[in-house]
Amino acid sequence: MTASTTAFYPIGTPGVAWGATEKAQWLSRQSRQRSYMDEVVSAIERLRARFDVVEYGHIAYGDDAYPLFAVKSREWDDALPIALVTGGVHGYETSGVHGALRFLDRHADDYAGRINLLVAPCISPWAYERIHRWNANAIDPNRSFRANSPAAESAALMQLVEPLGARVAVHVDLHETTDTDETEFRPALAARDGKPFEPDGVPDGFYVVDDSEHPQPAFQEAVINAVAQVTHIAPSDANGQIIGSPVVAPGVIRYPLRKLGLCAGLTDARYKTTTEVYPDSPRATPEQCNAAQAAAVCAALDFVLDRP
C-alpha cells in the first residue's frame, strides 16, 4: 500500500478529505474531560480585585456555551505600549492556559505603570474541556487568524485586538508540543484533509517560533535564555531541525506567522513569539511547564522595556 491509501486514522477514507459525515463522526467521539469554568474562569474571577476583566466574546456549540475573557491592566495608560499574551488557542495545550494565569497572578504587578497588559488566557474553551486541538467544527483556530475567519474563537480575539493597532509592542503566544501531536492530532489533520500522514519526532524541551518575515533573533534569544533557567531547551534533530524546520539558533525556528494564519501573527507587533513546551518529557513537571511559560512572558516584556 502507498502512504495515501494506508489507513492511519479511524475516521474517513485514506486520500479523501472529510465531508459533513466524517466531521460529525469525529465530533461524536469528543467528550468533556475537564471544566473551563472550574479551572480557568474561577482563576480569572480571583484576579478581578487587581485587574480589569473583559468579556470579549461568546462561543456556543449546541448546548455548550462559553464566555471568553481577557484580563487587562487596571491602570491602563494610552501613552504606554501594549503587551499581548495569549494562551489556549489550542485548548489541549494546558500550560499555555495556566502559564498565562500564573504570569498574571505572580508577575504582572511588576509591570504596572510600565506597559499595558492584555492577556487572553484561554481562547478555545470548548477544546480546553475536551483536551483537543480543534474547535467543534474540526477547525484549527491557530490557522484561522485571517479575514473572514472560519473559527469563531479566532474572530473574537481579532475583534478584541483590532482597535489597539500599532500600539501592541510585543505578543507572546503560549503553546505546547505534546506526544499526542504525533499520535492523534497530526494523523487527524492528515485524515481530515485527505493527505498521507508523515510521522515526525516530538522535540524534548522548550523552543520558540520566530516570525520569518520579521525575525528578531536577539528577542528570541532573551526568551530562550530566561526559560533555560526553568527547564531544558529542545535540541535540534539529526537534520538540524525542530518539527521539520531549520534551527536558526538554539531552541529557535521560524514560520511566516501571518501567512499561516497563526495567532502570533495577529498584530503588527515588532516583537512576537510562539512558545512551545514539552509537558510529556520525563525531565519536566507541569509546574515547570507553567513556570517556563510565565518566564517566557517576563523575559519578552523585560526585553522590550529595556529598549527605547
From TrEMBL:
SUPFAM superfamilies xref list: Zn-dependent exopeptidases (SSF53187)
Domain Peptidase M14: residue ranges: 32-308
Top-level taxon: Bacteria
Keywords: Hydrolase, Metal-binding, Zinc
Cofactor: Zn(2+)
Family: Belongs to the peptidase M14 family.
CDD domains named among the record's database cross-references: M14_REP34-like (cd06231)
Protein name stated in the entry: M14 family metallocarboxypeptidase
